[in-house]
Structure formats: structure tokens, C-alpha cells
Structures
1.
Amino acid sequence: MKSFVVCVAIFSFVVAVTSLTIITPIVRVINENCNDDPVPNSLNCSSVGTYDCGHCTCNVGFAGQRCECTASVQASSEVSCRKEFAQRLCSERGVCSCGVCECFQRTNPEEVISGQYCECDNYSCGRHNGLLCNGHGRCECGRCLCQQDATGAHCEIPRVRINTLF
């Protein structure tokens, strides 16, 4: 049986923007069996960081998983990734990168998290008879949008068509 050692190193950096100070922890998994040589100014790190064993270490003034942000943009990005000041960053359903929320992907590819702040999804609507939107609608941002043949909060009420002969 082959074994290997994985170490976790936790770093942090502090970015000051006017009177606001943000401390961002960086967790980097270091695989001691990685035999790759570090690549300075790698394209994988937007040419402003060193690529080492699948991770970027950004040069001073740059941040992000792939060093795609300037540190000042990254520091102000938290403001852009919250719908309101007191709300969670990207609704705790995504990561903030350069002021834009990148929503997490679910294990089920049919289930999608979306929205500017990752506040929406297509799977958390109410169920009726065990079916999302009673099988007569689609879920958008927590609301069932019913097909023409149904109505109600969960598309549980059939619409009755009245035929007239006029």
C-alpha cells in the first residue's frame, strides 16, 4: 500500500483600505510528494505569481486563486459581493473573486446556484406530492413558476379550463 504525507499550511495577509482592514486567510495544501519545480510568473497565475504543485503564490500587489486581481480590487471586493452590508459574502454559496461572486457547483448538475450574490437556485422551492413544484412548474430563485395547467405556491392547484361555444 502506497502512502504519502499531506501538510496544510495556513498563511494570511492583511490589506488595508482607508479605515477598513481585511484579514484574509489563505489555506494551501502542500503535497510533499509533488515533484514539480515552482514556475515563476506562470501563465497559470496570470503571469504575476509562482505556480507550485497546483497552487499560485501571488507577487506583491496581486491576489486571487490565479492572481487575477490587484490587491486593492480584492480588498474592496467584499463590498461588491454582498447584497447588503450585513449579509454573508456571496450568500455563503460561492466565493468572491475580484468583486464578482462565483457560485459553487452542486454535485447534481441539474441543481444550479445563480444570481449576482449566489442568492438563487433552482432546487429549493416547495414540493407537493414529493415533486418540486408538483411537477407542473420550474423553480427559479425560491419560487415556483407554474406551467399554464397549474397555479398555487407549489403549482399544486390545477387550472380549470372552461370551454365556451361562442
2.
Amino acid sequence: MITEDEEECTHIPDPTDTSPHSPHNQTDENFLHSFDLVEDFKSFFDNKDTTCLAAIRDLKQLKVMALFGYGLFHLILSLIPPTVLRVVNLLGFHGNRYLGLTSLRTVSDSSPNFRSILASVTLLWYHLSLRPTFISNSQLLVAGIKQGEKIIDQSLGPEFKDTWITLFFTGTMTKLQGNY
């Protein structure tokens, strides 16, 4: 005899049913993806040793993602002209160049991934292209060149030595030094 609870559960489609007439095949891709997430969570709680390490790795990646966005946001807001900055400040946004550069530097020093490379290229662009445009002090120019050399040597590493972006910024450093 089937109880009322069992009768309610009989009309729920089985997500593992792959037959062409199953109601599961007629649903959208989001349902399939949500089933995969449920399986991931089940495996997370079943195997605690390996998943704790994976969770820590994921949290570090989340921190790097947040720092990249936070640093880029602050750097861009700090570069806005003062007339437009008043309007942006009225909206509640404030930019801090030092905080943005520090956050991007932290991301570029993190483990090599796509965001660390983007942060390194952003820092190179700031120190070697944007900053020399607006400064007239030669000591600040030399400091920017040293920062660029440090970023290319430490953050980008040997696997990016012969790429076009590294060669471009190396040529920019040479030009800024006056060695044509």
C-alpha cells in the first residue's frame, strides 16, 4: 500500500533518467547544473580531508578575485578628473590610489593565475605608461622604472619573458631610461 507521502514523491522526475521521454530532458540546463552542484556538496561532506584543502584553495582564489576587483576599482576611481570626481563622490564612491596599488600588488604576488597576470599588466601600465605622463620629477620616474623591472622579474616570471606584452614594457622602460 502506498502512503500519501510516497504518492507525492512518485511524480518527481529522476535527474539521472536520460531517456528521451523523461521530463528531466525537457527542463533547461540550469536544472542539470544545479544537480551537479548538489552532487558536489554531497562529495564535499563525504570526503572531508581532500575537500578541506580544496575549500581553503577556493577561499584563497575568492580573496584574490575580490582584491583584484577592489584594487582596480580604487585605482580607476583615483584617476578620474576632479570635475567628474565630484559627481562620483556624490554617488558614494571614493578612490584611494595607494590602496588600489597595494591590492593589485598583493594579487600579482599571489600564485600564478589569470588575475595575477592581469594585475601585473595593470601595474606595469600604471608605472610605465600612465605615471610618466603626469610626473615631471626624475626621481619618481626612476622609481616607476624600478617598480616595472621588479614586476617583470618577480610577478610575471620566466615563462612570460618572451611574450609580446613583456617585450613591450621592457621597450618602454628602455625608452624612459633614454637608451634608444
